[in-house]
Amino acid sequence: MSASEYTKQILSEILSISKDNLFLNYIIERLCDDNYRGWHVSQHNRYDMNVIGIILQNIQKVVRTNFFAIPPGDYDRDTPLKGVFQNFQTIVNGVNSEMGRGTINSLKKNFFPDLEKMSFLIRKKIKPNNDSRSISCGKLTPSAIETTYRGSYYD
């Protein structure tokens, strides 16, 4: 049996535990994705799927399926964001209110790269006007939107 066949067999056995389990389906889908980079790239981030759900739900509450501007640079904990970054500030405030943690820097530097690797967030540069500089923006993927409506990963 080849390594690929063995992997497929193992993944099939994992899925057979509970075919309707959202978490198991997500894991299988991610492991089979050509863009999956493995566990080693996020080994220092420790959080559960409820944390991911809180972040996704707060993004969805604020911007729904639209892009939102991500501020450049580093920020002190109490720095308020204004203007085009107000939606990001609202997202940070909501996450922090629900989890008791979460800053401008932690969302954009720790959580957002992981959410992008999990196929829950698209990040790209956008030029809001033809004559202006581009800004970093984020947007939930269809998978993230579906996840926020389906509920818990542990059902």
Give a verbal description of the structure.
The chain is mainly alpha-helical. Helices cover 49% and strands 9% of the residues. It has a 3-stranded antiparallel beta sheet. Strand 2 and strand 3 (135-140) form a beta hairpin. Helix 3 runs antiparallel to helix 4 (86-99).
List the helices and strands and how they pair.
Blueprint (H helix, E strand, L loop, with lengths): L2 H13 L6 H11 L16 H15 L4 E2 L16 H14 L4 H14 L3 E6 L8 E6 L1 H9 L5
Antiparallel strand pairs: 1-3, 2-3
Helix pairs in contact: 3-4, 3-6
Short description:
This protein is mainly alpha-helical and 155 residues long. The chain is built from 6 helices and 3 strands; from the N terminus they run H-H-H-E-H-H-E-E-H.
- Average of per-residue pLDDT values: 84
Estimate the global geometry from the Cα principal axes: elongated
Q: Sheet with the most strands?
A: 3 strands, antiparallel
Which value, in Å, is the CA radius of gyration? 17 Å
| Largest sheet, spatial ordering of strands | 1-3-2
SSE run? HHHEHHEEH
- Total DSSP E strands: 3
Please count the helical segments. Answer: 6
